[in-house]
Structure formats: C-alpha cells, structure tokens
C-alpha cells in the first residue's frame, strides 16, 4: 500500500500498515508559503505504543534473519533511493528548503549509507580464543540491542534518519523513527521505500507528531532498548536523562559552534571558499557549519573584503530554482532566531554586519541574505551560541596560539578547521584542537558516509555514528565459554 504524501493526507507507518489519525498538521514550503507539502498525522502516545509493540513482535524474526537477507534488503533501499533521487530531492527541497542541488546530494548520500551498511550486515565478525583454563574456548559475538528509537532533526531529513536506521537494521535491530515534525514527508517517503522493497512488517516504523507527545513518550518507553538523538543541547539533555533513568542506551549529537581558523600564510582563495561553503551553504543549517571564522590579524581586512565579495555572488532564492545556491530558512520561528542574533550584533559597539537582510522574491518565503558579523569579540553571544542559520562571526586574533585558544574556548567540540600552508601548524592543530573532527584546507561541513562522525564536550554523548564505529552503539557483546 502506497501512502499519499504530496499535498494530501499522510499517515503513520506502523507494522507495515498506514495508520490514520484524527489530528493533522499542515506543512508549507519555506520557499513558497502557497505550496502545501501535506497534512501530516499527529500521533498520540497510544500510536507509539502500537509501533513499539510491532517492533518487539518483529524483533525475533529480524535478528535471526540471515545477514545476506538483511544485506539484500538494505541494498534494495540503496538502489531505489538512487533510482528515485530526482523525485526525493524535489520533495526534500520543497519541504526543508535546501537548494535542489544540495537536496539531491543529500538523497544520494542516503543511498550511499544504505549501501555501506548493507555490506556491514555481512561483516559482523566475532572472536575466538583459548581460555586460561585448559580445554576451554572463549568466544565473543555481537548481537542486536533490540528496539531502537530514533529522534531525528529537520536539517538533514533523509540523511540523518538513514545514518541511524541503516546500521540499526543492518545489525538486526528493529526501529521506531520519530522525525522532526516539519519534515515528516521525507521520513514517510523513506518508509514507503522500505515497505516497497520488502522489509517485514514491524521492522521499521515511523510515528510522526510533536516532540512533547511522541518524542518524550519514545524516550521514556520501557519497550525502547536504545535511543539515538540528533538535535539541540537542551532537548538532548532531557533525552539523556529520560533514557538513562531507565538504563536504556543513549547516543546524542547536539550541534556545534565550529571554528574555521585562517592563518596569515593561508591561500585566501581556498580560505574564502571554505568559509562561504561551511558558513552559508544549506542555509548554514548544519551542526558542522563554520559559525566562527578565526582570522589572523595580518590578513583579517583582506579576508573580510574577499568574503563580502564572495557573499554577493551567492544566489538566495527558491530551493527548486537550479540557480539558487542558498535556499530559505526552514521556518518562521528559525528565521526569528536568526534575526534576533543579527539585531543583537547590530546593537553591539564596534560591530559591523555585512548582509543579513530579508529578501523579497517572486514567492513568499523565508529568504535571508548570508550575514558576516565583523568586530565582535570571542565572548559575544553571537560568537558563542549556536544560531543555526546563514550567520557567521569573524574573530580577529594575533597569532596561531591565540587562534587555537579561541577554537578550544567553547562548550561545543564537534568540528574545527584550519586554512594554512604550514605543515607544522596543520599538524599541531590536528593534535591540539579539542574537537571530534578536524579539517585542513577544507570546509568544516562535509563528511564521508563510510567514516565515523561525532564530537566532544557538549556536542556529542555516547558512541560515534556512521562508519564501522556504528557497531558500538547498535550491537551488544556476548561472551561464551565452552568446554567441548
């Protein structure tokens, strides 16, 4: 049965069935407020109970399914996503506001993630060794955790659900996904593909609705064995408390305030390209965005001038327009947050804001020109708090050591970057930057699907995501002692 998403009712996906609810929420495109994406089901706690029960009922069959069976199904999803990339990218661009080129790249990444984890399903190796006791063998094996609850954000509406769900499924877990309310369409499109490919009923379930109802119930539900969450620090702490109170596994990704260091010896063409890409592409709505640009004094003024010129070349517009490089802000509430920080910056002594203006376009959307905040110190709120929009601050420093100190002076620790032609500085920065990921002469945003992802300090909690590291969270070890 195919669910209706586009411009009409869209239901929950539970136990291989599309389940209707009385309460619905309408989603309109941030590029065009006249474009209705759909009217999405708002679940109640009882619907979550139904989804968790379905996942539990499906768990024994799925965990004992042959690894080849799981691999084939994940590969089928990968192939289907790739074959339907244009359709999915269009829905993503309409729903979330990501420029169509970036939307298609995200869809392709989702395909790559499913393909990678289809291989991982066949690579769940164990260990066998002799015991210290003669004639006894000791073996270890990796088994699924059980029912995994996924709470995913709105900024990567197919990639993040995928990089959580694909490893969970590959390693034999069943899944209940609660997507961000404003991007329910992409989660349901993913569910429809898994249904079409032939995943058994109950193995993958999607329950849409509000975080306060569905999200809280999922975190506290005794039938959920592990919770993986991506979102804000505030919500992440509540998720951690709710899950750990009942001793469930928990994995959190909670954003960043990422620094891109530009040293005096940097190739400024590369540095500007890295800064514009990292700070503004995908409307700056990435946890890996370069929101702090730390520039050595000797090249500060030239760098700012070049940045201003590059920003003027960017095209802000409707996400479906192929000329657009920066789409709209995702929602009115997020736009209000962005504008609030810009107002704070404009009211600060000695601070200049380049860009950051509301724009009129042929359609009614949340269009904001990229903003560069110059002259603020490292302690200013707009240089310390995650804004999550096309806003970056430039922080002037005297030398490399000060740049490194500013980079590390943050409650976040997701990713940092450095632009330099000095091998010694590049090497030292990789060692001393207190972040989970480091980029050298590259944008802070942009990671590979086969490599682990995660940060330190207030950015992340629990095992890493993606790559071979995903097994740490989605499996549990069993040790067996055998005397033949």
How would you describe the shape?
A: globular
- Determine the number of helices (DSSP H or I, runs of at least 4 residues): 14
User: What percent strand?
Assistant: 15-25%
Number of strands: 23
Radius of gyration, in angstroms, nearest whole number: 23 Å
Largest sheet: 7 strands, mixed
Separation of termini? 51 Å
* Spatial strand order of the main sheet: 15-16-17-14-13-19-20
Give me the CATH superfamily of the largest domain. Answer: Aldehyde Dehydrogenase, Chain A, domain 1
User: What is the CATH topology of the largest domain?
Assistant: Aldehyde Dehydrogenase, Chain A, domain 1
The appropriate CATH architecture of the largest domain is: 3-Layer(aba) Sandwich
Describe the structure.
This protein has helices at 45-63, 67-83, 85-96, 100-120, 159-170, 184-197, 211-220, 233-244, 268-280, 297-313, 332-346, 400-408, 423-432, 471-474, and strands at residues 9-10, 12-14, 17-19, 24-28, 36-41, 127-130, 137-144, 147-151, 174-178, 204-206, 226-230, 249-253, 259-262, 292-296, 352-355, 371-374, 391-397, 412-413, 415-419, 437-440, 456-457, 460-461, 475-482. The protein is an alpha/beta fold. The chain folds into two domains: 9-254 and 459-482, Aldehyde Dehydrogenase, Chain A, domain 1, CATH 3.40.605; 259-440, Aldehyde Dehydrogenase, Chain A, domain 2 (3-Layer(aba) Sandwich). A seven-stranded mixed sheet has the order 15-16-17-14-13-19-20, with helices on both faces. The protein has a six-stranded mixed sheet with strand order 10-9-8-11-12-22, sandwiched between helices. Helix 9 (268-280) links the parallel strand 13 and strand 14 (292-296). Helix 2 (67-83) crosses helix 6, helix 3 (85-96) crosses helix 4 and helix 9 (268-280) packs across helix 10. The chain is globular. The chain starts with 8 loop residues before the first strand and ends with a strand. The mean pLDDT is 96.
